[in-house]
């Protein structure tokens, strides 16, 4: 029996996760599901955003389906207790260093993109984001300087082995696609990035079939809206990847369309939409469940070895959206449940 951990979390997390779970239930009959609280919901229920039982379930499960965490009412908590620590803790504890964030414009969504249709239609890329290092996990704090002013700091650091292993994921991903890898950094200013670039070039020796290029992150942000079709695979650090993937989502129509897979070298993975808990629309049935459903498809492909079911689920999402069954973020009037129903009807 294959065990899927369902961690719905906060805001729209439970709404979109429900639809993704229903799709998995409709597709594969040999899955069992176990649910646990995470994020603000877990803090309210048990006093901690990542309770021991939730982490234990994530460890026992074959794969994790994660919704979103974040609750503006809990932003005043000390950092260790904030909802966001749950997802950071899961990534760290499960050593999920490789985050795949594909962005592609589905048929019919040209008008939903923030770009002109002819520019938008070319987008078909994967951002390979490093997920367990960088400024996210370095030493951080607030202190007083010698002159008595308050100072905040977050150390940005990468070890060469961390860069090398994510670079390999980038090259392998590019090899299975159009064979082009763009490494995004800020090597003109940051030593972290200079090491990143040096190590990526070293790893490239093993991938002569992949065409490697380098781009500064500020230029990459510009190029993503100027001509997103130029990118095949982007490999980048944790912070740059976070920012660029939200940007890429609007090229593809909506942040509600982008799924992700957080992977280690084993089959275990955590799958989540790239969006957050969207407190502004939570509880209204307006959340787009496509990103969560496409994350479930990535789970079928990467953790459950069921690529044919992944294809069916992706095709069903593409079909529902193409037929105009869309939530308001895509200019439609459908509810979260109606999109879920439309996808399941097309499986
Ligand atoms: P957000 O992604 O939650 O929302 C940004 C905007 O996009 C909002 O206007 C929201 O309504 C819209 N949006 C997001 N997902 C949508 C969907 N599926 N359908 C339709 N519209 C959608 O980002 P934010 O507002 O910066 O953050 C809100 C909270 O979520 C914060 O607490 C933040 O820390 C947290 N967050 C969590 C994750 C995660 O759990 N992985 C990711 C990002 C943000
Ligand atoms: C994401 C989110 C998280 C991140 C936050 C909630 C910690 O923005 O998954 O993209 O920055 O990685
Ligand atoms: Mn993000």
From TrEMBL:
Assembly with partners or alone: Homodimer.
UniProt-recorded name of the protein: 3-isopropylmalate dehydrogenase
Lineage summary: Bacteria, Pseudomonadati, Pseudomonadota, Alphaproteobacteria, Sphingomonadales
Q: Does the entry feature the keyword Aminoacyl-tRNA synthetase, yes or no?
A: no
Q: Which domain of life is it from?
A: Bacteria
Tell me the pathway.
Amino-acid biosynthesis; L-leucine biosynthesis; L-leucine from 3-methyl-2-oxobutanoate: step 3/4
Write the gene name.
Answer: leuB
In chain numbering, the residues marked as site (Important for catalysis) are 136, 186
Q: Which cofactors does this protein require? A: Mn(2+); Mg(2+)
User: What keywords sit in the KW lines?
Assistant: Amino-acid biosynthesis, Branched-chain amino acid biosynthesis, Cytoplasm, Leucine biosynthesis, Magnesium, Manganese, Metal-binding, NAD, Oxidoreductase
InterPro entries attached to this UniProt entry: IsoCit/isopropylmalate_DH_CS, IsoPropMal-DH-like_dom, Isopropylmalate_DH
Name where it's found.
Answer: Cytoplasm
Task: Return the SMART domains for the record.
Answer: Iso_dh
Q: Which organism is it from?
A: Sphingomonas gellani
Give the record's family classification.
Belongs to the isocitrate and isopropylmalate dehydrogenases family. LeuB type 1 subfamily.
Q: What does this protein do?
A: Catalyzes the oxidation of 3-carboxy-2-hydroxy-4-methylpentanoate (3-isopropylmalate) to 3-carboxy-4-methyl-2-oxopentanoate. The product decarboxylates to 4-methyl-2 oxopentanoate.
**May I ask which residue range the UniProt record assigns to the signal sequence?**
none
Q: Where does NAD(+) bind?
A: 276-288
